[in-house]
Protein backbone atom coordinates (compact mmCIF):
# COMPACT_ATOMS: atom_id res chain seq x y z
CA UNK A 1 0.00 0.00 0.00
CA UNK A 2 1.19 3.54 -0.75
CA UNK A 3 2.17 5.27 2.50
CA UNK A 4 0.92 2.23 4.44
CA UNK A 5 -2.64 3.63 4.43
CA UNK A 6 -5.31 2.61 1.87
CA UNK A 7 -7.32 5.77 2.64
CA UNK A 8 -4.67 7.96 0.98
CA UNK A 9 -4.94 6.19 -2.39
CA UNK A 10 -7.90 8.15 -3.88
CA UNK A 11 -6.30 11.59 -3.41
CA UNK A 12 -2.87 10.38 -4.56
CA UNK A 13 -4.43 8.70 -7.61
CA UNK A 14 -6.36 11.86 -8.49
CA UNK A 15 -3.23 14.03 -8.25
CA UNK A 16 -1.13 11.50 -10.15
CA UNK A 17 -3.67 11.09 -12.96
CA UNK A 18 -4.07 14.84 -13.43
CA UNK A 19 -0.28 15.26 -13.44
CA UNK A 20 0.10 12.49 -16.03
CA UNK A 21 -2.62 14.08 -18.19
CA UNK A 22 -0.88 17.47 -17.96
CA UNK A 23 2.53 16.06 -18.93
CA UNK A 24 0.98 13.92 -21.67
CA UNK A 25 -0.87 16.89 -23.15
CA UNK A 26 2.29 18.99 -23.07
CA UNK A 27 4.34 16.31 -24.84
CA UNK A 28 1.52 15.74 -27.35
CA UNK A 29 1.52 19.45 -28.20
CA UNK A 30 5.30 19.53 -28.66
CA UNK A 31 5.36 16.35 -30.76
CA UNK A 32 2.45 17.50 -32.93
CA UNK A 33 4.14 20.87 -33.47
CA UNK A 34 7.42 19.22 -34.48
CA UNK A 35 5.59 16.79 -36.76
CA UNK A 36 3.70 19.62 -38.46
CA UNK A 37 6.95 21.55 -38.87
CA UNK A 38 8.65 18.55 -40.48
CA UNK A 39 5.70 18.08 -42.85
CA UNK A 40 5.66 21.76 -43.86
CA UNK A 41 9.42 22.38 -43.90
CA UNK A 42 11.12 19.02 -44.55
CA UNK A 43 14.35 20.43 -46.00
CA UNK A 44 15.03 23.01 -43.27
CA UNK A 45 14.70 20.63 -40.31
CA UNK A 46 16.78 17.76 -41.65
TrEMBL record:
The chain crosses the membrane at residues 20-41. Keywords: Membrane, Transmembrane, Transmembrane helix. This is Uncharacterized protein. It comes from Rotaria socialis. The lineage of its organism: Eukaryota, Metazoa, Spiralia, Gnathifera, Rotifera.
